[in-house]
Amino acid sequence: MREDAARFLAPRHRVRPHSILADAVAAGQRAGLDDLINFSIGDPDITTDQRITRAAMDDALAGHTHYTPPHGDPELVAAIVEAQRADYGVDVEPGQVLVTASACHAMALACMAVLDPDLPPARRREVIVPEPYFNCYDGQIEQAGGVPVHVPTSEADGFQLRPEALEAAITPRTRAIILNTPTNPSGVCWSREAQLVIARVAAEHDLLVLADDIYTAFSYAEPFIPFATLPGMAERTVTVRSFSKNYAMTGWRIGYAMGPAPIIGAMTDINENIVYTAPAPSQRAALAAIRLRHEIMPPIAELYRSRLMAAYREICDTPRMHALEPGGAIYLWVNIADTGLSSAEVMDAMLHQAHVLTIPGPAFGASGEGYLRLAATLDVKRIHEAFARIRRMEIFGG
């Protein structure tokens, strides 16, 4: 009897895709360093507000431990609708909302709803992904039968998407554009002008926009603008939101999607065959969070802003290292090209010489070579200690 169970796998899953991010995290684990300062993963180090946790616990004890309707707990859906109206002046119907088990889940469902794995490879639908980009996008697109098309941005342009670069990437097979602002990993807030360019191009070429709005509370350089509020964009935008970062609720795995009713309906149908509905206790936690949003989100956002600026000042004081002033999210995109080493080489040197772990830029697209991503998920004291160690390294002037 053959013992190689890989023979049961579909051909496209027999070779696991290489993950630079996973390699970096594994390297940190293998190092076994008791004094490791870990900037690698964007998981907030603060615990979910106790008011959220207690409300979820009380609701679970009161019986909220059963399936909810497929589109979500009616109270949570109603609260999402109310929040959109109150915060952004947007009217969303309950049938345009789907509660999901994380924003990653919502994006994957959106891709499955609008892409088509039954098409032959030469006709597969394409999704434009500006670089640098959140590393899950490629897998979400490809698993849904689509083709990611990367469009690099540059530091010289403030990592804003050039209109001519966007236009050049469009083909008859283009189906959608992913927009993520504030952006992981660069921390850039896309300007209104850049978003209006995407809106114009989407309308001219009849494209869908997948707006990955994960860091709405962390938009410092520009006021956060929901893409669906731009003229003519509501009918061609699927918005993905999350409670993970805004409320420090990563482990609850809860998010939602909003968009045109036919697309949200298809996503709901697909999801019934995957998890049916998001976990009821997590939905109740999300309900408590959204009701307390004006109390909980601002202190979290201010905490991360102070950390980002502390790290940015340290970067400015470190030879052979620079970055744009952070505009949002919880990350710094650090240019280390002046070291003359690759991103992977610098990451490895920092790990073994300074006991500081980062993620090499190519984890977020090929144009990320020459950069490192730092997540500001550590307190200011640890940030100062990390850079004191880094500056003792020879490649950074020590």
Automatic annotation (TrEMBL):
Q: Which cofactor does it need?
A: pyridoxal 5'-phosphate
- Which CDD domains did the record assign? AAT_like
EC numbers listed for it are: 2.6.1.-
Q: Which InterPro entries match?
A: Aminotransferase_I/II_large, AspAT/PAT-like, NHTrfase_class1_PyrdxlP-BS, PyrdxlP-dep_Trfase, PyrdxlP-dep_Trfase_major, PyrdxlP-dep_Trfase_small
Q: What class of enzyme is it?
A: transferase
Q: Which residues form the signal peptide?
A: none
- What Pfam families has UniProt attached to this entry? Aminotran_1_2 (PF00155)
Which keywords belong to this entry? Aminotransferase, Pyridoxal phosphate, Transferase
UniProt GO MF annotations: pyridoxal phosphate binding; transaminase activity
Limits of the Aminotransferase class I/classII large domain: 35-390
Q: Which GO terms describe its biological process?
A: amino acid metabolic process
Membership in a protein family:
Belongs to the class-I pyridoxal-phosphate-dependent aminotransferase family.
What is this protein called in UniProt? Aminotransferase
